Amino acid sequence: MSRIEVRLAALLHSYTRGARTVKASGATLGEVLDDLERRYPGIRFRLVDEQERLRRHVRFFVNGADTRSLATPLGAGDKVYIVGALSGG
Amino acid sequence: MPKTTTRATPAARSRLMLLVATRKGAFVIRGDAARQRFRIDGPHFLGHIIHHVVLDPRDKQTLLAAARTGHLGPTVFRSDDFGKTWAEAARPPQFAKAAEGVTPRAVDHVFWLTPGHVSEPGVWYAGTSPQGLFRSEDGGRTWHGVAGFNDHPMYGKWAGGEQDGTPDGPTTHSIRIDPRDARRMYLGLSGGGVFVSDDQGAAWRPMNRGSRADFFPDPYPDYGQDPHCLAVHPLRPDRLYQQNHCGIYRMDLPDETWVRIGDNMPRDVGDIGFPIVLHPRDPDTAWVFPMDGSDVWPRVSPGGKPAVYVTRDAGARWKRQDRGLPRAQAWFTVKRQAFCADGFDPLGLYFGTTAGALWASTDEGGHWNCIVPHLPEIYAVEAAVI
User: Fold this and answer.
1) Is A1 in the B-facing interface, judged by CB distances under 8 Å?
2) pLDDT single digits (tens) B278-318
3) Domain of A32: which CATH number?
Protein backbone atom coordinates (compact mmCIF):
# COMPACT_ATOMS: atom_id res chain seq x y z
CA MET A 1 0.00 0.00 0.00
CA SER A 2 1.43 3.34 -1.05
CA ARG A 3 2.26 5.97 1.51
CA ILE A 4 0.85 9.30 0.42
CA GLU A 5 1.58 12.73 1.78
CA VAL A 6 -1.65 14.61 2.36
CA ARG A 7 -1.58 18.34 2.92
CA LEU A 8 -4.69 19.73 4.52
CA ALA A 9 -6.07 23.25 4.47
CA ALA A 10 -6.85 24.94 7.77
CA LEU A 11 -10.53 24.00 7.63
CA LEU A 12 -9.54 20.39 8.39
CA HIS A 13 -6.98 20.97 11.13
CA SER A 14 -9.57 20.47 13.87
CA TYR A 15 -9.69 16.82 12.78
CA THR A 16 -5.91 16.32 12.63
CA ARG A 17 -5.27 18.05 15.95
CA GLY A 18 -3.53 20.87 14.15
CA ALA A 19 -1.35 18.80 11.79
CA ARG A 20 -1.05 20.44 8.37
CA THR A 21 0.44 17.43 6.66
CA VAL A 22 -0.26 13.78 7.42
CA LYS A 23 0.68 10.46 5.88
CA ALA A 24 -2.01 8.13 4.60
CA SER A 25 -2.19 4.82 2.77
CA GLY A 26 -4.11 3.94 -0.36
CA ALA A 27 -3.93 3.16 -4.04
CA THR A 28 -6.61 5.70 -4.95
CA LEU A 29 -7.83 9.02 -3.63
CA GLY A 30 -10.87 7.23 -2.21
CA GLU A 31 -8.70 4.77 -0.30
CA VAL A 32 -6.60 7.58 1.10
CA LEU A 33 -9.77 9.28 2.36
CA ASP A 34 -10.87 5.97 3.90
CA ASP A 35 -7.55 5.79 5.72
CA LEU A 36 -7.93 9.37 6.93
CA GLU A 37 -11.40 8.49 8.24
CA ARG A 38 -9.99 5.62 10.30
CA ARG A 39 -7.53 7.94 11.98
CA TYR A 40 -9.60 11.11 12.07
CA PRO A 41 -13.25 10.01 12.47
CA GLY A 42 -15.79 12.23 10.78
CA ILE A 43 -13.41 13.83 8.30
CA ARG A 44 -14.53 11.82 5.26
CA PHE A 45 -18.20 12.80 5.37
CA ARG A 46 -17.23 16.46 5.49
CA LEU A 47 -15.40 15.90 2.16
CA VAL A 48 -17.48 13.24 0.39
CA ASP A 49 -21.27 12.95 0.44
CA GLU A 50 -23.31 9.79 0.96
CA GLN A 51 -23.48 9.21 -2.79
CA GLU A 52 -19.67 9.07 -2.98
CA ARG A 53 -19.41 12.48 -4.63
CA LEU A 54 -16.68 14.90 -3.68
CA ARG A 55 -18.26 17.93 -2.05
CA ARG A 56 -18.76 20.83 -4.39
CA HIS A 57 -16.78 23.42 -2.47
CA VAL A 58 -13.79 21.27 -1.63
CA ARG A 59 -10.96 20.89 -4.15
CA PHE A 60 -8.58 17.98 -4.41
CA PHE A 61 -5.19 18.19 -6.09
CA VAL A 62 -2.87 15.25 -6.83
CA ASN A 63 0.68 16.35 -7.52
CA GLY A 64 -0.72 19.77 -8.33
CA ALA A 65 -3.40 18.57 -10.75
CA ASP A 66 -7.08 19.15 -9.93
CA THR A 67 -9.18 15.99 -9.67
CA ARG A 68 -12.85 15.27 -8.99
CA SER A 69 -12.63 11.48 -8.93
CA LEU A 70 -12.26 9.20 -5.95
CA ALA A 71 -10.79 6.64 -8.36
CA THR A 72 -7.77 8.79 -9.11
CA PRO A 73 -4.80 6.40 -8.80
CA LEU A 74 -2.04 7.19 -6.35
CA GLY A 75 1.46 5.83 -5.96
CA ALA A 76 4.29 6.08 -3.46
CA GLY A 77 5.54 9.62 -3.15
CA ASP A 78 2.42 11.24 -4.57
CA LYS A 79 1.16 14.33 -2.85
CA VAL A 80 -2.49 15.12 -2.22
CA TYR A 81 -3.67 18.60 -1.33
CA ILE A 82 -7.19 19.16 0.03
CA VAL A 83 -8.35 22.75 0.16
CA GLY A 84 -11.56 24.75 0.42
CA ALA A 85 -12.69 26.16 -2.91
CA LEU A 86 -13.57 29.79 -3.32
CA SER A 87 -17.09 30.06 -1.97
CA GLY A 88 -19.36 31.75 0.46
CA GLY A 89 -19.17 35.08 2.18
CA MET B 1 -28.04 47.25 28.00
CA PRO B 2 -31.41 48.87 28.78
CA LYS B 3 -32.98 48.08 32.11
CA THR B 4 -36.46 46.69 32.34
CA THR B 5 -38.91 47.58 35.07
CA THR B 6 -40.62 44.22 34.92
CA ARG B 7 -40.27 41.89 37.88
CA ALA B 8 -39.82 38.33 36.75
CA THR B 9 -40.28 35.36 39.00
CA PRO B 10 -38.43 32.34 37.70
CA ALA B 11 -37.98 29.50 40.13
CA ALA B 12 -35.18 30.39 42.51
CA ARG B 13 -32.71 27.80 41.28
CA SER B 14 -33.66 27.80 37.63
CA ARG B 15 -31.37 29.41 35.15
CA LEU B 16 -32.08 30.48 31.62
CA MET B 17 -29.89 29.62 28.65
CA LEU B 18 -30.60 31.04 25.23
CA LEU B 19 -29.11 28.85 22.53
CA VAL B 20 -28.43 31.06 19.56
CA ALA B 21 -27.55 29.60 16.17
CA THR B 22 -26.10 32.00 13.63
CA ARG B 23 -24.65 32.05 10.17
CA LYS B 24 -21.19 32.32 11.73
CA GLY B 25 -21.34 30.15 14.83
CA ALA B 26 -23.28 29.39 17.99
CA PHE B 27 -23.64 31.38 21.19
CA VAL B 28 -24.95 30.44 24.61
CA ILE B 29 -26.49 33.43 26.38
CA ARG B 30 -26.86 32.83 30.12
CA GLY B 31 -29.41 34.84 32.05
CA ASP B 32 -29.50 35.52 35.77
CA ALA B 33 -32.44 34.45 37.94
CA ALA B 34 -34.30 37.68 37.27
CA ARG B 35 -33.59 37.60 33.51
CA GLN B 36 -32.10 41.07 33.88
CA ARG B 37 -28.47 40.37 33.08
CA PHE B 38 -27.09 38.16 30.36
CA ARG B 39 -23.63 36.76 29.77
CA ILE B 40 -22.41 35.64 26.37
CA ASP B 41 -20.59 32.33 26.10
CA GLY B 42 -19.07 31.89 22.66
CA PRO B 43 -18.71 31.87 19.81
CA HIS B 44 -18.74 28.12 19.47
CA PHE B 45 -17.77 26.80 16.03
CA LEU B 46 -16.81 30.27 14.80
CA GLY B 47 -17.26 30.39 11.04
CA HIS B 48 -19.57 27.40 10.91
CA ILE B 49 -23.11 27.84 9.71
CA ILE B 50 -25.18 26.71 12.69
CA HIS B 51 -28.82 26.05 11.91
CA HIS B 52 -30.12 24.91 15.28
CA VAL B 53 -28.87 24.33 18.82
CA VAL B 54 -31.21 22.46 21.17
CA LEU B 55 -30.96 21.27 24.78
CA ASP B 56 -32.61 17.97 25.64
CA PRO B 57 -35.40 18.93 28.06
CA ARG B 58 -35.50 15.36 29.35
CA ASP B 59 -31.98 15.21 30.79
CA LYS B 60 -31.33 18.98 30.77
CA GLN B 61 -27.76 18.17 29.82
CA THR B 62 -27.39 17.04 26.22
CA LEU B 63 -26.88 19.81 23.68
CA LEU B 64 -27.02 19.12 19.96
CA ALA B 65 -25.90 21.56 17.28
CA ALA B 66 -26.58 21.24 13.55
CA ALA B 67 -23.52 22.53 11.67
CA ARG B 68 -21.90 22.88 8.30
CA THR B 69 -19.52 25.31 6.64
CA GLY B 70 -19.42 26.83 3.19
CA HIS B 71 -16.99 24.08 2.22
CA LEU B 72 -17.48 21.08 4.47
CA GLY B 73 -20.45 18.76 4.55
CA PRO B 74 -23.15 18.74 7.22
CA THR B 75 -22.78 17.26 10.65
CA VAL B 76 -24.16 17.27 14.18
CA PHE B 77 -22.14 18.10 17.27
CA ARG B 78 -23.02 16.94 20.76
CA SER B 79 -22.09 18.29 24.18
CA ASP B 80 -22.73 16.87 27.66
CA ASP B 81 -21.27 19.84 29.52
CA PHE B 82 -23.24 22.80 28.20
CA GLY B 83 -20.80 23.50 25.40
CA LYS B 84 -17.44 23.26 27.19
CA THR B 85 -16.57 20.34 24.92
CA TRP B 86 -18.20 19.03 21.76
CA ALA B 87 -18.03 15.67 20.00
CA GLU B 88 -19.08 15.06 16.42
CA ALA B 89 -21.78 12.50 15.60
CA ALA B 90 -20.21 9.22 14.53
CA ARG B 91 -22.84 8.97 11.82
CA PRO B 92 -24.50 12.29 10.90
CA PRO B 93 -27.84 12.26 9.07
CA GLN B 94 -27.35 10.93 5.56
CA PHE B 95 -29.55 9.41 2.90
CA ALA B 96 -29.14 5.83 1.77
CA LYS B 97 -26.92 5.14 -1.20
CA ALA B 98 -29.10 5.57 -4.26
CA ALA B 99 -30.02 2.48 -6.25
CA GLU B 100 -29.33 2.33 -9.95
CA GLY B 101 -31.63 4.67 -11.86
CA VAL B 102 -32.79 6.53 -8.74
CA THR B 103 -31.97 10.22 -8.33
CA PRO B 104 -29.31 10.36 -5.62
CA ARG B 105 -30.00 12.49 -2.55
CA ALA B 106 -27.37 13.97 -0.27
CA VAL B 107 -27.97 15.98 2.87
CA ASP B 108 -26.90 19.56 2.26
CA HIS B 109 -27.56 20.65 5.81
CA VAL B 110 -29.33 19.59 8.96
CA PHE B 111 -31.92 22.29 9.49
CA TRP B 112 -34.02 21.21 12.47
CA LEU B 113 -33.50 19.21 15.67
CA THR B 114 -36.29 17.90 17.90
CA PRO B 115 -35.86 15.84 21.09
CA GLY B 116 -38.07 12.78 21.07
CA HIS B 117 -41.03 11.99 23.30
CA VAL B 118 -40.45 12.03 27.04
CA SER B 119 -41.04 8.26 27.11
CA GLU B 120 -38.08 7.72 24.78
CA PRO B 121 -34.92 9.13 26.36
CA GLY B 122 -32.08 9.43 23.89
CA VAL B 123 -34.35 9.64 20.86
CA TRP B 124 -33.97 12.71 18.65
CA TYR B 125 -35.30 13.67 15.23
CA ALA B 126 -33.61 15.79 12.59
CA GLY B 127 -35.05 17.52 9.54
CA THR B 128 -32.76 18.23 6.62
CA SER B 129 -32.38 19.99 3.33
CA PRO B 130 -33.19 18.52 0.90
CA GLN B 131 -36.22 17.23 2.70
CA GLY B 132 -35.48 14.28 4.91
CA LEU B 133 -36.40 12.94 8.34
CA PHE B 134 -33.78 11.21 10.50
CA ARG B 135 -33.91 9.56 13.91
CA SER B 136 -31.26 8.96 16.53
CA GLU B 137 -31.75 6.53 19.40
CA ASP B 138 -28.46 7.22 21.15
CA GLY B 139 -28.64 10.89 21.99
CA GLY B 140 -27.50 12.17 18.62
CA ARG B 141 -24.40 10.02 18.16
CA THR B 142 -25.72 8.04 15.19
CA TRP B 143 -28.59 8.87 12.84
CA HIS B 144 -30.66 6.79 10.46
CA GLY B 145 -33.24 7.79 7.92
CA VAL B 146 -36.95 7.41 8.72
CA ALA B 147 -37.79 5.26 5.72
CA GLY B 148 -41.54 5.80 6.10
CA PHE B 149 -40.99 9.40 5.08
CA ASN B 150 -37.73 9.47 3.11
CA ASP B 151 -38.77 6.52 0.94
CA HIS B 152 -42.50 7.15 0.85
CA PRO B 153 -43.91 6.51 -2.65
CA MET B 154 -45.23 10.09 -2.66
CA TYR B 155 -41.97 11.67 -1.45
CA GLY B 156 -41.11 13.08 -4.87
CA LYS B 157 -44.51 14.70 -5.28
CA TRP B 158 -44.75 15.97 -1.70
CA ALA B 159 -41.23 17.38 -1.61
CA GLY B 160 -41.34 18.73 -5.17
CA GLY B 161 -38.23 19.97 -6.90
CA GLU B 162 -35.66 22.69 -6.35
CA GLN B 163 -38.18 25.30 -7.45
CA ASP B 164 -40.44 24.30 -4.55
CA GLY B 165 -37.87 24.91 -1.84
CA THR B 166 -36.66 27.94 0.06
CA PRO B 167 -33.75 30.03 -1.28
CA ASP B 168 -31.54 27.90 0.99
CA GLY B 169 -33.05 24.71 -0.36
CA PRO B 170 -36.09 22.51 0.27
CA THR B 171 -36.43 22.03 4.01
CA THR B 172 -37.97 19.66 6.54
CA HIS B 173 -38.81 21.51 9.73
CA SER B 174 -41.24 21.80 12.65
CA ILE B 175 -40.93 18.16 13.71
CA ARG B 176 -43.53 18.02 16.48
CA ILE B 177 -44.48 15.09 18.66
CA ASP B 178 -47.80 14.81 20.43
CA PRO B 179 -46.99 14.90 24.17
CA ARG B 180 -49.74 12.30 24.75
CA ASP B 181 -48.44 9.79 22.24
CA ALA B 182 -44.92 9.22 20.88
CA ARG B 183 -46.43 7.71 17.74
CA ARG B 184 -48.27 10.88 16.70
CA MET B 185 -45.91 13.16 14.79
CA TYR B 186 -46.17 16.22 12.58
CA LEU B 187 -43.71 17.88 10.28
CA GLY B 188 -43.59 20.78 7.86
CA LEU B 189 -42.10 20.81 4.41
CA SER B 190 -41.03 24.05 2.75
CA GLY B 191 -42.41 23.51 0.34
CA GLY B 192 -44.76 20.61 0.54
CA GLY B 193 -47.12 21.31 3.41
CA VAL B 194 -47.96 19.86 6.80
CA PHE B 195 -47.82 16.08 7.22
CA VAL B 196 -48.94 13.80 10.04
CA SER B 197 -48.08 10.28 11.13
CA ASP B 198 -49.92 8.10 13.64
CA ASP B 199 -47.36 5.32 13.76
CA GLN B 200 -44.10 7.07 14.62
CA GLY B 201 -43.20 7.87 11.08
CA ALA B 202 -43.98 4.60 9.32
CA ALA B 203 -46.83 6.18 7.32
CA TRP B 204 -47.56 9.80 6.53
CA ARG B 205 -50.38 11.79 5.02
CA PRO B 206 -50.82 15.46 4.13
CA MET B 207 -52.91 17.67 6.43
CA ASN B 208 -53.38 20.89 4.52
CA ARG B 209 -57.10 21.39 4.03
CA GLY B 210 -57.94 25.08 4.27
CA SER B 211 -54.40 26.44 3.94
CA ARG B 212 -53.64 28.39 0.81
CA ALA B 213 -50.89 28.04 -1.76
CA ASP B 214 -51.13 31.25 -3.77
CA PHE B 215 -48.24 30.15 -5.94
CA PHE B 216 -50.18 27.32 -7.61
CA PRO B 217 -53.01 27.51 -10.14
CA ASP B 218 -55.17 25.68 -7.59
CA PRO B 219 -54.67 27.64 -4.37
CA TYR B 220 -55.99 24.80 -2.19
CA PRO B 221 -54.09 21.68 -3.25
CA ASP B 222 -53.81 18.57 -1.08
CA TYR B 223 -50.10 19.29 -0.65
CA GLY B 224 -47.51 21.73 -1.91
CA GLN B 225 -48.20 24.50 0.62
CA ASP B 226 -45.38 26.29 2.39
CA PRO B 227 -45.80 26.12 6.17
CA HIS B 228 -43.05 28.31 7.61
CA CYS B 229 -43.51 27.15 11.18
CA LEU B 230 -45.88 24.66 12.80
CA ALA B 231 -46.63 24.49 16.54
CA VAL B 232 -48.62 22.04 18.67
CA HIS B 233 -49.92 23.25 22.01
CA PRO B 234 -48.40 21.22 24.87
CA LEU B 235 -51.53 21.32 27.07
CA ARG B 236 -54.06 20.97 24.27
CA PRO B 237 -52.25 18.95 21.60
CA ASP B 238 -55.34 18.89 19.40
CA ARG B 239 -54.77 22.59 18.81
CA LEU B 240 -52.21 23.41 16.14
CA TYR B 241 -51.04 26.73 14.80
CA GLN B 242 -48.97 27.52 11.76
CA GLN B 243 -47.35 30.59 10.29
CA ASN B 244 -47.54 29.83 6.62
CA HIS B 245 -46.15 31.50 3.51
CA CYS B 246 -49.81 32.36 2.86
CA GLY B 247 -51.07 33.43 6.26
CA ILE B 248 -51.54 32.46 9.90
CA TYR B 249 -53.72 29.43 10.65
CA ARG B 250 -55.17 27.46 13.54
CA MET B 251 -56.51 23.91 13.54
CA ASP B 252 -58.65 22.29 16.23
CA LEU B 253 -58.70 18.54 15.81
CA PRO B 254 -60.51 16.32 15.07
CA ASP B 255 -61.57 18.81 12.38
CA GLU B 256 -58.56 18.67 10.08
CA THR B 257 -59.23 22.08 8.57
CA TRP B 258 -56.93 25.06 8.86
CA VAL B 259 -58.71 28.32 9.71
CA ARG B 260 -56.98 31.49 8.55
CA ILE B 261 -56.81 33.52 11.77
CA GLY B 262 -54.38 35.89 10.05
CA ASP B 263 -57.36 37.45 8.31
CA ASN B 264 -57.88 39.27 11.60
CA MET B 265 -54.48 40.96 11.45
CA PRO B 266 -54.32 44.65 10.41
CA ARG B 267 -54.55 44.84 6.62
CA ASP B 268 -51.54 47.17 6.32
CA VAL B 269 -49.37 44.68 8.21
CA GLY B 270 -50.67 41.45 6.75
CA ASP B 271 -50.22 37.94 8.10
CA ILE B 272 -47.00 36.84 6.45
CA GLY B 273 -44.01 35.87 8.57
CA PHE B 274 -41.73 33.02 9.55
CA PRO B 275 -42.14 32.11 13.25
CA ILE B 276 -45.07 31.45 15.56
CA VAL B 277 -44.69 31.01 19.33
CA LEU B 278 -47.30 29.59 21.69
CA HIS B 279 -47.90 30.38 25.34
CA PRO B 280 -47.15 27.08 27.07
CA ARG B 281 -49.94 27.57 29.62
CA ASP B 282 -52.60 29.18 27.43
CA PRO B 283 -53.71 27.52 24.19
CA ASP B 284 -55.43 30.75 23.10
CA THR B 285 -52.25 32.84 23.14
CA ALA B 286 -49.73 33.01 20.31
CA TRP B 287 -47.17 35.46 18.98
CA VAL B 288 -46.01 36.15 15.44
CA PHE B 289 -43.49 38.49 13.86
CA PRO B 290 -44.96 39.85 10.62
CA MET B 291 -42.87 40.61 7.58
CA ASP B 292 -43.53 42.21 4.22
CA GLY B 293 -44.86 39.59 1.83
CA SER B 294 -46.04 42.04 -0.82
CA ASP B 295 -44.69 42.80 -4.26
CA VAL B 296 -41.36 40.95 -4.64
CA TRP B 297 -41.48 39.64 -1.06
CA PRO B 298 -38.95 41.90 0.72
CA ARG B 299 -39.19 39.72 3.85
CA VAL B 300 -38.42 42.62 6.19
CA SER B 301 -40.53 44.32 8.84
CA PRO B 302 -43.49 46.04 7.13
CA GLY B 303 -42.60 49.68 6.55
CA GLY B 304 -39.32 49.24 8.42
CA LYS B 305 -41.28 49.27 11.71
CA PRO B 306 -40.75 45.94 13.45
CA ALA B 307 -43.40 44.62 15.80
CA VAL B 308 -44.58 41.46 17.45
CA TYR B 309 -48.30 40.70 17.31
CA VAL B 310 -50.07 38.67 19.98
CA THR B 311 -53.48 37.04 20.08
CA ARG B 312 -55.03 36.01 23.37
CA ASP B 313 -58.25 34.63 21.93
CA ALA B 314 -56.96 32.00 19.49
CA GLY B 315 -56.63 34.44 16.62
CA ALA B 316 -59.88 36.41 16.75
CA ARG B 317 -58.00 39.61 17.59
CA TRP B 318 -54.36 40.65 17.41
CA LYS B 319 -52.50 43.31 19.37
CA ARG B 320 -49.32 45.08 18.32
CA GLN B 321 -46.38 44.83 20.76
CA ASP B 322 -43.55 47.16 19.80
CA ARG B 323 -42.52 49.00 22.97
CA GLY B 324 -38.75 49.22 22.98
CA LEU B 325 -38.36 48.13 19.38
CA PRO B 326 -37.02 50.58 16.75
CA ARG B 327 -39.69 53.06 15.66
CA ALA B 328 -38.60 53.28 12.02
CA GLN B 329 -35.93 52.41 9.45
CA ALA B 330 -35.34 48.93 10.87
CA TRP B 331 -35.28 46.45 8.02
CA PHE B 332 -34.85 43.04 9.56
CA THR B 333 -36.96 40.00 10.05
CA VAL B 334 -37.02 36.96 12.36
CA LYS B 335 -36.54 33.50 10.92
CA ARG B 336 -38.77 30.54 11.72
CA GLN B 337 -36.57 29.09 14.48
CA ALA B 338 -35.52 32.43 15.94
CA PHE B 339 -38.47 33.26 18.22
CA CYS B 340 -39.14 31.36 21.45
CA ALA B 341 -40.58 31.44 24.97
CA ASP B 342 -38.90 30.42 28.23
CA GLY B 343 -41.77 28.91 30.25
CA PHE B 344 -41.36 31.20 33.28
CA ASP B 345 -44.22 33.20 34.78
CA PRO B 346 -44.61 35.83 33.48
CA LEU B 347 -43.51 34.30 30.23
CA GLY B 348 -40.25 35.50 28.72
CA LEU B 349 -40.04 35.89 24.96
CA TYR B 350 -36.89 36.10 22.86
CA PHE B 351 -36.23 36.68 19.21
CA GLY B 352 -33.10 37.01 17.11
CA THR B 353 -33.00 39.06 13.94
CA THR B 354 -31.46 38.68 10.54
CA ALA B 355 -29.43 41.78 11.52
CA GLY B 356 -27.86 39.85 14.41
CA ALA B 357 -29.63 41.41 17.40
CA LEU B 358 -31.13 39.37 20.22
CA TRP B 359 -34.25 40.88 21.83
CA ALA B 360 -35.97 39.90 25.07
CA SER B 361 -39.22 40.59 26.87
CA THR B 362 -39.93 39.44 30.41
CA ASP B 363 -43.54 40.58 30.37
CA GLU B 364 -45.01 38.52 27.55
CA GLY B 365 -44.16 41.04 24.87
CA GLY B 366 -45.21 44.21 26.68
CA HIS B 367 -41.71 45.66 26.57
CA TRP B 368 -38.68 44.68 24.54
CA ASN B 369 -34.97 45.09 25.31
CA CYS B 370 -32.07 44.39 23.00
CA ILE B 371 -29.87 42.14 25.14
CA VAL B 372 -27.15 41.37 22.55
CA PRO B 373 -26.86 43.81 19.65
CA HIS B 374 -24.20 42.55 17.28
CA LEU B 375 -24.24 38.84 16.63
CA PRO B 376 -24.04 37.41 13.11
CA GLU B 377 -27.30 36.80 11.25
CA ILE B 378 -29.44 34.76 13.64
CA TYR B 379 -31.00 31.54 12.40
CA ALA B 380 -32.40 30.08 15.62
CA VAL B 381 -33.01 30.94 19.28
CA GLU B 382 -34.04 28.29 21.78
CA ALA B 383 -34.74 28.97 25.45
CA ALA B 384 -33.56 26.27 27.83
CA VAL B 385 -34.20 26.25 31.56
CA ILE B 386 -31.72 24.32 33.70
Assistant:
1) no
2) 999 999 999 999 999 988 889 999 999 999 999 999 999 99
3) 3.10.20.30
3 state SS for chain A? CCEEEEEECHHHCCCCCCCCEEEEECCEHHHHHHHHHHHCCCHHHHHECCCCCECCCEEEEECCEEECCCCCECCCCCEEEEEECCCCC
Query: Is B96 within 8 Å of chain A by CB?
Result: yes
Please give the residue of chain B at the shortest CA–CA distance from A48.
Answer: B73
B70 touches chain A (CB under 8 A): yes
B71 → chain A, closest CA residue: A57
In-domain check, residue A46: yes
Which residue range is the domain that position A55 belongs to? Answer: 3-84
Task: Assess A7–B contact: CB distance below 8 Å, yes or no.
Answer: no
End-to-end CA distance of chain A: 40
Number of domains chain A contains: 1
Burial of B347 (0-12, 13-18, 19+ CB in 10 A): buried
CB atoms within 10 A of CB B220: 14
In chain B, the domains with their CATH numbers are 16-93+107-385 (2.130.10.10)
Interface test mutation site (partner B, options A49, A53, A54, A60, max chain B beta carbons within 10 A): A49
Q: How far apart are CA B154 and CA B247, in angstroms?
A: 26
- Does any domain span residue A89? no
Query: Which residues are CB-contacts of A65 (< 8 A; sequence separation ≥ 6)?
Result: none
Q: How far is B114 from chain A, CA to nearest CA, in Å?
A: 22
Closest-CA residue of chain A to B103: A51
Enumerate the residues of chain A whose CB falls inside 8 A of the CB of residue B75: 42, 45-46
pTM of the model: 0.94
pLDDT digits (tens, 9 = 90+) for B149-169: 999 999 999 998 777 888 888
What is the structure's pLDDT at B13? Answer: 62
| Helices assigned H by DSSP within chain B | 147-150, 155-159
Contact B104 A11 (CB under 8 A): no
Strands B124-129 and B109-115 come out as: antiparallel
Distance between CA B360 and CA B199 in Å, rounded?
38
Over residues A6-52, the pLDDT tens digits come to: 999 999 999 999 999 999 999 999 999 999 999 999 999 999 999 99
d(CA B103, CA B105): 7
Q: Has the ipTM of the complex gone over 0.90?
A: yes
**Chain B residues in contact with A46 (beta carbon < 8 A):** 72-73, 75
